[in-house]
Amino acid sequence: MANPIYPCLWFDGQAKEAADFYCSIFKNSKISSENPMVVIFELDGKRFMGLNGGPHFKFNESVSFVVDCEDQREIDYYWNKLLEGGGKESQCGWLKDKFGVSWQIVPTILGKLMSDPEKSGRVMQAFMQMKKFDIEKLLNA
Whole-prediction pTM value? Predict the structure, then answer.
């Protein structure tokens, strides 16, 4: 079985709406199956379950999904798309979408910059001032 471990996201009746929203943003995405309780969908080939579990539980920042981005165009795309419809910006590449799910929109080069002892402190200081990551500012830090 490919992808035997996958997240289940608890929604208050919005699982299908959320699955449609996410599938419209990420390439290679589709809804595999759905019923009134559960929607199974794939984002870029990764399996997810959306559960219409009711109002009992809410999303928080203790769990987030990281989106690695090769360039500023990708960062801008995912940042803007995931904020559509009422999302909220946070700090250091974090945001919450309109359903309350937390995302980290991160440049792939960040790990390399942070592992450079000469630059890491300046890079960290630069991104602590950012909401959405700006690759050019990180490279120039």
Answer: 0.93
Helix (H) or strand (E) holding 122: helix 120-127
Q: How far apart are CA 126 and CA 93, in angstroms?
A: 12
Cα 84 vs. chain centroid, distance in angstroms? 13
Between CA 34 and CA 49 the distance in angstroms is: 10
Q: What is the pLDDT of residues 60-70, one digit of tens each?
A: 999 999 999 99
Pair of tokens at residue 50: 């959306």
pLDDT in tens, 50-60: 999 999 999 99
Instruction: Give the integer Cα–Cα distance in Å for 96 and 89.
Output: 7
CB atoms within 10 A of CB 39: 24
Identify the structural domains of the chain with CATH numbers, from first to last. 1-57 (3.10.180.10), 59-141 (3.10.180.10)
Tokens for 106, please give them.
């991160």
